[in-house]
Specification:
heterodimer, A: mainly alpha, ABC transporter involved in vitamin B12 uptake, BtuC, two-stranded antiparallel ribbon, 2 strands, globular, B: mainly alpha, 15 helices
């Protein structure tokens, strides 16, 4: 049970934060299909950063958490810079945002793989020494306690054998949600996605707001990408995040573009993802019976379910969808 | 603002929309290649193991990779290389088909980002039927046709899903296409996971592949390509793809149905007002689009010696996405798709040559392709620039 909850959280958090990244961009009026690409880029930058720091011997195992936090933010900032490409084509050049996003989705793995092969002469790079678990995972020993120390069930779930980055992402998720929905800036940003002409007439710079939306989106997606690379891929990067960016799009739609629903959607889809990858050895109530593998449903069904559910949700909510009205439409001052 | 030739009274050829499309495509290609070249130079300068000679070799191979004939006494040699040429055409086949798929959808105002999923469904249908019929005493021709058609029909069915969502519920096809892509990826993996008879276990060391169709003899005939390009993988599939491209041109430009499709693409509501069944046309457009993408997969795997890695639930085939630049560069003209498809596969061949002959690797081709897609996103902007230049120069009408 502990294992199931932790694993679900592990899978769900990158989904949540990247889905929120999608919301930031779409609320400002730019469709960000490039989430997958930005994630790939962020994951690569984060891993590369850790690798470089290790090569330069700047950090020891004891300062692993600091290194990890630095890498997380470096990845986020680079994701933000990478997303400028989308912002430039979508906002300044009024290009088709879907094609622009697709281009970034193709560009990120190409550049990342090109560099990975140039650096490592193989298709994947990881840490120079140690592993994600030994350097970055929180354990009783990281708090100076004996190895088999137990805080009891609840706290064990929260801090034993998890990564700090998961919690940082949750905190960032909350902060960004508050910014989007409870501040003046958030209101202005959202108005640009609903009715940019009206926003402009009230003195809001639509271009700036959309840039802010896309860059915030890139920041979160880069962060989510590194979080994925750290927790799920064991701090390696191979130019692929296994379709997480697209799954995050599904979460965003499932969550109807609102943070609380996205958090719920992320947890549900994360649970499916978790069941799919661990179903053969999953012992839910600890009685030694692998219930799910005995039912005999293929893991691919669980992997498929999020997408099927999203399609069904789309079909039934198409009338009451909260999709931003001006998303995907380049802002043209002269248009009424 | 039309500029007419004073003598003939006709529009000058270089001011036509077609000429501008070609020009903006060429500009995109050149910028893309330039970016690739710059990356090669920068990476070459920062890496110790690549000399100035290595950089120059890399640059030459990006442009002339297809004509590379290997190395002789340390220097790169260039000339007609039938193997590279043939492989270029062979790899172009699925790209032409997915390019057509994206182009036809574009004509109806739809962005078919789901070509990857339709491609996978086509793969599943073709391999399943091909391997099943190939093991019976069914004649090869009939088995080939059945395998091809099954793939195409499955792909058409898969394309219909986003079409129906778009037509009846007005849900953006991009979202549904992404969902159907990943559903297809899992479905195909599930199917092959559950059917061990299709898995290739005979050849040791290779795990996770489906039996190639040449093992059961259901392959596309060479149709003269073995004479033109001896030693390459090229086969009759490229001719079939070209014929389909021409058929699509005729369908779109010379038939009522094609006109209706385009009318729906230009303005769905106006088309409806004019008495065109917009829902039917949107769905049919996606069905054709899906069938074309799947046809690409069918032709690719019916070549016989291509092996399908079945555990694909984490990744989508790149052919599906590379159809987008093929269609965009061709300005959605089906016949132009043949040439842009061949161009894209030329880049891929050049990438492989880079990998084999220099310290660089094949992903530079993907970078160039991605840059081209990025640029073609604002091809409208480039066209506007071209128009603007003309205004300044021409002045009067």
């Amino acid at each position: 049970m502990v294992f199931l909850i932790q694993q679900t959280l592990l899978f769900a958090v990158p989904l949540m934060i990247v889905a929120l990244a999608g919301v930031c961009a779409e609320r400002s009026g730019v469709i960000n299909l490039a989430l997958e690409g930005i994630m790939i880029f962020g994951a690569f930058i984060g891993v590369l950063f850790i690798r470089t720091m290790q090569e330069m011997n700047l950090f020891d195992k004891e300062q692993g958490q600091i290194l990890m936090i630095l890498a997380l933010f470096v990845a986020a900032i680079c994701g933000s810079i990478f997303s400028l490409l989308l912002a430039f084509s979508a906002i300044n050049l009024k290009a088709d945002q879907t094609i622009g996003g697709t281009a970034l989705n193709m560009l990120a793995p190409a550049i990342v793989l090109f560099l990975i092969v140039m650096i490592a002469q193989q298709n994947t790079i990881g840490m120079v020494k140690g592993g994600a678990a030994s350097w970055f995972m929180l354990r009783p020993s990281s708090f100076g306690l004996p190895k088999d120390y137990s805080w009891g069930f609840l706290i064990d779930i929260l801090i034993n054998k998890v990564y700090l980055s998961t919690y940082i992402c949750i905190i960032v998720f909350v902060i960004v949600s508050v910014i989007l929905y409870k501040t003046k800036f958030g209101l202005r940003l959202r108005s640009c996605g609903e009715n940019p002409q009206a926003a402009d007439s009230l003195g809001i710079n639509v271009f700036k707001m959309r840039y802010a939306g896309v860059m915030l989106s890139g920041f979160l997606a880069g962060m989510g990408g590194f979080n994925y690379a750290l927790t799920t891929a064991g701090c390696t990067s191979n130019g692929d995040v296994a379709g997480y960016g697209f799954l995050a799009l599904a979460v965003m739609i499932f969550g109807n573009w609102t943070p609380i629903n996205i958090a719920a959607g992320g947890l549900i889809f994360g649970l499916f993802k978790c069941i799919a990858s661990t179903y053969a050895t999953l012992d839910i109530n600890g009685d030694g019976i692998y219930m799910l593998s005995e039912i005999g449903i293929s893991p691919y069904v669980y992997r498929m379910l999020p997408y099927v559910i999203t399609l069904v949700v789309l079909a039934f909510t198409s009338k009451s969808s909260r999709v931003p009205k001006a998303e995907g439409i380049p802002y043209d001052k002269g248009q009424r | 603002m039309l500029r007419l030739d004073p003598e003939t009274g006709k529009q000058k050829w270089y001011t036509t929309d077609g000429a501008k499309s070609v020009l903006s495509a060429i500009i995109s290609i050149l910028i893309g290649m330039a970016v690739g070249m710059i990356i090669i130079v920068i990476v070459g300068l920062t890496k110790d193991n690549i000399s100035a000679k290595g950089i120059w070799e890399g640059v030459r191979l990006v442009f002339l990779g297809v004509f590379s004939t290997g190395r002789e006494s340390g220097a790169l040699t260039f000339g007609f290389n039938p193997v590279n040429m043939g492989n270029m055409l062979f790899r172009a086949t699925p790209l032409i088909m997915t390019g057509l798929s994206v182009a036809v959808a574009f004509k109806t105002g739809l962005f078919n980002i789901g070509a990857a999923g339709q491609y996978l469904m086509g793969t599943m249908g073709t391999l399943t039927v091909g391997l099943t019929l190939g093991n019976t005493d069914c004649p090869v021709l009939i088995a080939w046709i059945a395998a091809f058609l099954t793939g195409v029909i499955l792909g058409g069915f898969w394309g219909a899903i986003p079409g129906i969502f778009k037509a009846y519920l007005n849900i953006n096809e991009v979202i549904t296409c992404i969902m159907t892509n990943w559903i297809a990826a899992n479905l195909v993996t599930w199917w092959f996971d559950a059917h061990d008879i299709f898995k290739n276990s005979a050849e040791g060391g290779k795990v996770g592949y489906i039996i190639p169709l040449k093992n059961v003899g259901v392959v596309t005939p060479k149709m003269g390509t073995d004479v033109l390009f001896p030693g390459s993988q090229a086969n009759g599939g490229i001719w079939i793809a070209c014929i389909i491209a021409v058929a699509m041109l005729i369908l779109l430009n010379k038939t009522t149905f094609g006109y209706e499709l385009k009318a729906c693409g230009s303005n769905r509501h106006a088309a409806k007002y004019a008495g065109i069944n917009d829902k039917k046309n949107i769905i049919l457009s996606m069905v054709i689009s899906g069938a074309l993408a799947a046809g690409g997969a069918s032709l690719y795997y019916l070549s016989g010696n291509t092996e399908f890695f079945w555990s694909t639930y984490m990744s989508l085939p790149s052919e599906g996405f590379n159809g987008i630049p093929v269609a965009l560069l061709a300005a959605n003209n089906p016949v132009a798709v043949i040439f842009t498809g061949i161009f894209m596969s030329m880049l891929n061949v050049a990438g492989m040559q880079l990998k084999y002959l220099t310290a660089y690797n094949e992903y530079i081709a993907d970078i160039i392709i991605a840059v081209i897609v990025y640029l073609s996103a604002f091809s409208m902007f480039i066209k506007q620039l071209l128009n603007g230049r003309e205004k300044k120069k021409g002045g009067n009408k």
